[in-house]
Amino acid sequence: MTENHRPSSPRRWIIAARPWALPASTMPVVFGTSLAVVIGGARTDVLRFASALLAMVILHSAANMLSDVFDFKRGLDRDVTPVSGAVVRGWLSPAAVTRGAVILFLAGCGIGLALAAMTGTVLLIVGAMGVAVGAGYTLLKYNALGDMAVFLNFGLLGALGAWVVQTRVFSWLPVVWTVPMAMLVIAILHANNWRDIVTDSERRVRTFASVLGDAGSQAYYGFLLFGSLGLVLAFILVPRLVGGPLPALPWTFAIVLLALPKALDLWGRARRRLTPRRPMDFVILDGATAQYNLLFGTLCTFALWLWYFIR
Description:
Shape: globular
Structural class: mainly alpha
Strand content: under 5%
Largest sheet: none
Distance between the termini: 55 Å
Mean pLDDT: 87
Number of strands: 0
Order of helices and strands: HHHHHHHHHHHHH
Radius of gyration: 19 Å
């Protein structure tokens, strides 16, 4: 792309934040807030919800930008794909994006501190953990711990923080019930790392996908994809059959099975990675998995509110 055809400066910064990845972080906030209202009996504080959502978007964008810079500097991301950021595309310099990421981290932390002042110490602890994991994400990713980082930040901690913002108390419920969605956030990252096994290994970057290898990565992706559906069914049935410390997931969550055809499509893309039906099927598997995660999370949230109105 020539200079004359580059997008405007605001759009370059939007692309630097990789907005297609943001639903992975916003969905746990929406789901955690819904849990607080439907299950926790909280009265919705719209301002706090909007602030929590904004803080998550800002911090996720900052983490994305730092990750892109470090990946570019290590020579990991040099080829432009439909899901590339602004650094790889040559639209912004690594230094500029780094400065932007620092500003966003400070802004996100400022919002988080304001929310903690209104809700208490529990949110401060949850938020501090999230910021620490987000800031160190690239280092964790290079040492096969990226999956754990996104599982915590864009799954468990996101939902728990949203719950605490509304209820002001800690509960294991949003932590446990968000695990299926958190598994799909891992699947997004894993699809990216699986595609990049060869280049990552050449540059001595140790992701969990490179540890597993190609065959192991396929099995792992299938586990994340279908295990999330299986876990929802387990949360519905097991407490009803044998009891347990947490209540059963509302039966309306069986609606997530509507996502099964999309899961089977993604699984087909993964299995046919060497002979894809369309040239970019495996290359953009991470983006397609992100779309599936949004569908899955939307169905979970809808199921929660459907149960609320039926009840």
